[in-house]
Amino acid sequence: MGPSKGEEEEQSVILISDDEAENTLGSSVLVVDPLEKSALEEEKSEEVVDEECELMVTFCKQANVMPHARYDCTIHLFERTECDTCSPLGKNADICDQCYCYICDKLAAECQNWTTSSLCHCNAHNKSKFWKDQRDFALAGVLVMFNLELTDIDADLRHGGSLLIKFIQELSVEYNKYLVGEKIPPTQHECICLPKLPAGQCNICRSRNTEVVYKYSGVFALVTRFLNQAEQESPKAAAVMYLGAAKEIALHKDPAL
Predict the structure, then answer these.
(1) Are residues 140 and 161 in the same domain?
(2) pTM score
(3) Which of 32, 42, 117, 257 would be 13's cystine partner, CB 3.0–4.6 Å?
(4) Could you say which of 146, 167, 193 is where a domain stops?
């Protein structure tokens, strides 16, 4: 009794070269095993779209959602305003797995200021000058003062920017000390109060005659150290440090005037 029809379908198929030449060199034998239907093929479904044109959809697959800024999300609606940072607008705080923070340039789920009051990165979008400036500063840091393209910022420029930020913070402390000044009371002064006290013993007259001296030496020493440090850095980093320091110093004023 021969094999049943079902058994024939499950048997392997063997293809043998039909070359009848005595030299069998080059002949081949190929064993082909029947493949099981893939899960993809099982999910295929046929649907007639246009019988006249004989158009038929045999398979369809849902598109993969690519990473996108929150304002471009097709799943959750987004409300736009120029610069609302108080609280999330509408459903702006809602996100999908591929939503990115426009300011931080990372997944919205990882943004620490997504719904933080007075920051609210969830409301950020690319049609607002306010949010664009926020994004530029977040990505470029202090280098934003030089109007550089993000693609032009390399490791040397970022290193110079990091050193400049530290310098600006230290400079702010020294400059504030300079603005406050140093009070130097005179050693001897004549008392004009009643009753009149001996010179140097009246606290009221002493406070009236106190002199305020503004010493810029602290600021000068800090700037000098920073410029000397810049000389040891790469040309790009040094340029950032020199220009940044010059911009900061240009804003200083003499409080005595």
Answers:
(1) no
(2) 0.54
(3) 32
(4) 146
Query: What domain count does the chain have?
Result: 2
Same domain, 126 and 174: no
If asked whether residues 118 and 172 sit together in one domain, one would say no
CA atoms within 13 A on the CB side of 2: 4
Chosen domain end from 146, 179, 205: 146
Identify the domain containing residue 184 by its residue range.
Answer: 154-249
- CA nearest neighbour of 57 among 46, 70, 42, 67: 46
The reply to whether omega before 255 is within 30° of 0 (cis) is: no
Q: pLDDT truncated to tens, each residue of the chain (257 aa)?
A: 555 555 444 454 444 445 555 554 554 444 445 555 455 444 545 555 556 667 777 777 777 889 999 999 999 999 999 999 999 999 999 999 999 999 999 999 999 999 998 899 999 999 999 999 999 888 898 898 898 888 899 999 999 999 999 999 999 999 999 998 887 666 556 666 767 766 666 766 666 656 778 889 999 999 999 999 999 999 999 999 999 999 999 999 988 77
